[in-house]
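Job type: complex structure
Entries:
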Amino acid sequence: MIDRAPTPFSSVSRRDFLKVCSLAAAAVGLPASAAEQMAAAVQKRKPSVIWLQFQECTGCTESLLRTGHPDVAQVIFDLISLDYTETLMAAAGHQAEAALDAAVRENDGKFICVIEGAIPVKDDGNFCRIADKTALHLTQEIAGRAAAVIAIGSCASWGGVPSASPNPTGASGVSDVLRNKPIVNIPGCPANPYNLLGTVLQFATFGTLPALDDKGRPKFAYARVIHDDCPRRPHFDAGRFSQRYGDEGARQGFCLYKIGCKGPKTPNNCSLVPYVDTPGAWPIGIGAQCFGCSEKGIGFNLPLFETVDVQGATPPAMYTPIDPASGIISPVATGVAGLVGGALVGAGLAYGARLSRDDRDGEARDEEKP
Amino acid sequence: MNAHARPVGGKIVTPFFLVLLALAATAGVLVGYRLFTGVGSITALTDQYSWGIWKPINVVTFTGIGAGAYGVGLLTYILNNGKYHPLIRPAVLVGAIGYSLGGASVMIDLGRWWGSVFLLYPPWYNFSSILLEVALCVLTYVGVLWVEVTPAILDRWSADGSSRLKRFAARLQPRLQAALPFVIALAMLLPTMHQSSLGSLYLMAPTKEYPLWFTGWLPFLFLTSCLTMGFGSVSAVDILAGSVMPGRYRTNMALLGGIARVAGWVSLFYVAFRFADLAISGRIGYAFQRSYQVPFFWAEIALFTTSGLLFLSRRARTDRGRLFTAAILALLAGAIYRVDTYLVAFDGGPGARYFPSVGEILVTVGLGALGVAAFLLIVKKLPIFAVGETRP
C-alpha cells in the first residue's frame, strides 16, 4: 500500500486490468465472475461520473483517495471516467465549467452524479455558489439529468453537520431537493469509500442499483446496526461496560454503550469492511463511542454521551430461535384431554362414592340383624 | 410367594376387554406411523418442548403407579411385615406392566429409536448422563419385576400344566426360591435409584423450571411421592378386585388400613417437606404470585393434603369407598406433581408453548388400556389374587 507506484495509464496490461477488476469486485462483495463482466463493460464504455461538492469538508473525497483495493488511480483511470471533480481535476475556471458542460451533454441521462455535501435551501440557496450558480440550482440542473444520483456522506444524505441545530443555511440532503430520480444515500462521516465503489461499479457493470433500505441506503452495507457485528459485542452481552473515558473498563476494551455509543441504532458495516483498508480505524476501534453518523436524526442531533435504546438485546446469532412461532394448542386435543382426564377422575370418584354407600348400607343391615 | 393365590378365571373376551383392545390397537397404529415418519408427525413437540406428555405420564406416572411393588416390598421385606404378603403379587404384576409400558414409551419417544440397541453395548455409554442411569435402571427393573412374576407362572404350571411343564416348574422353583432374596434386594434398590433420578432429570434445568418446583430436593420429592402413588395403586387395585368379585375375593380392610396409615403420613410429610423446603430456601413468596403455574401448585398441595387426611381418617379403615377415593386422589396428586414438574413448571423459552396433540393423548390412553387389558388377562390365567377363600 505504501510503496504503491501509480501505474502509467498506457502500460496497463490485460492481466493487470483484470486484477483491478477482481479487486474491485471482491471489495464490494461481488463474485469473481463479476470481474470478467466488469472488465468487458468498462472496455466498451467507461461510465461517466460527475462529482459535485457543496457544503462539505472534502472528507469523503479524501477517504476515496486513500483506497487501496482498487486504488483511486485505478478507479478513475481504469474503471470509471471521472469527468468533473473540483478536488482532483487539473482544469480551473472557465475550463472546468466547459468540461462539466461537455460531460453532461455527451452523457445526457446516462452519467452518474455523485454529490458530496449538503445543499442550503434558505434564502434561495444563496449560501453556496459555484460559478455563480447556487448549489440548489446545480443540483436540479445537473443531477436532474443524471441516470442515478449518489449522495455520499451524511451531509448529502440528510444534511449532516451543516444541518446541525440551528441550521442557519437550511442545509438539506439531496433527496430533500431532488424528486423523481433514483438516489442512493451512502451516509457516513466520512463514508466508507468501498460502499461508494460497490455502488458505482455495480451500476457500471450491470446497469442496476443495489437494493436500498427505507432511508435509501444500500442494504449490502447498511442492513445491520453496528451493535450487531461490533467487536466489543461480547462485553455488552456479558454486562462489562466502560463507565467513563480512561477508566479500567475503557482500558480493558469493554463495551462503550454507557458512555453514549450509538451503535445499537446506527446501521453501517464499519466493523466488517475496514475504513480505507486500516483495521481499527473507526470510532469504536480506537475506544470512542459510535456517534451515529449514518443514521438520520442521531449523528449531529443527539448529545454525544446520551445513550440510545437497544433494539436487539439478544445477540444476533440467536435471533432466529429466540421467538419462533412454535407449539400448536389444538382445541380438539384440549377437548380430548379434558374428556379422558375428566372421565378417569370422575369415574374413580363416583365409584368411590358408590362403594361408600354400599358399605354404609351393609353396616346398617349388619346392625339391624342382631 | 402366596400359596393360596389362584387364577381368577372367567371369560377373557368381554365387551370391556374389546374396548381396551380397540384403544390399544389405535395407539399401535399411531406408534407404527410415528416410528416410520418421525416423532413430529403425530406429536405437538417442538425444539423448545422436546418432552411432551409421554414422559411425565407414560413413563413417570405409569412407573409411579407401578411403584406399589416398591412400596409394599419395603413394608413387607425391609420392615419385615409379613402380613402384607397377600398384596405383593398384584402389586408386582401392576409394577411389571406399568414399568414395561413406561420402558416401551421411552423407546417410541426416542428421536432415533433404532439407536436404542446400543443400550446393550456398554463401551458407548455416556456415564455422565442421568438418562442413561434411568434407562439402565428401568430396563433392569422391568426384568426384575417379571422375574418376580414368574413364581405365579410356575405355580400355574405345577398345578395344571402338562407333565413336562410340571417337571420343568418343579426343577426351577427351588432355584428361583434360592435366588429370590437377591432379586428382591435388587427390586428394592433399583426403584430407589431411578424414581429419584426421574426427579434428578430436572436438576439440569434450573433456569427453565419455575422456582416453586425447582429444588435440590427434586429427587427426594419424586421418591416420596412415588410411594404415595404406589400405596394408592395397591389399595385401589385391591378394593376394585374385591368389589368386582364379590364373594370370591374379600378386600382385607385391616391390611389396607395399615397401608393407608403409612400412605397418609407419607403424603402429609411430603406436603410439610415441600413447604419447609420453599420456606428455608426463601421461595415461598412464589406461591402467592400471579402466574399461571401457581394454581397448579395449590392443586397439587390440596390433592396431597386431601388424600393424606382421607387415608388417615378413621372411616377409611372400614369404608372401602373412602379408602378408594383417597387412593384415587393420591394417584392424581402424584400424576399432577409429575406433569407439573415436567411440563407446567418448565419454560421452553419465549413464544414456546406446548399442549399434547390428539395423537399423543390417544397413544397414552391406548398404552394405559393395553396395561389394563394385560392385567385382566394375567389375573384370569395366573394365580395372582387369593380368590375363593372368603365365606359368603
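Summary: Chain B touches chain A through 32 residues (CB under 8 Å). Chain B has a mean pLDDT of 90.
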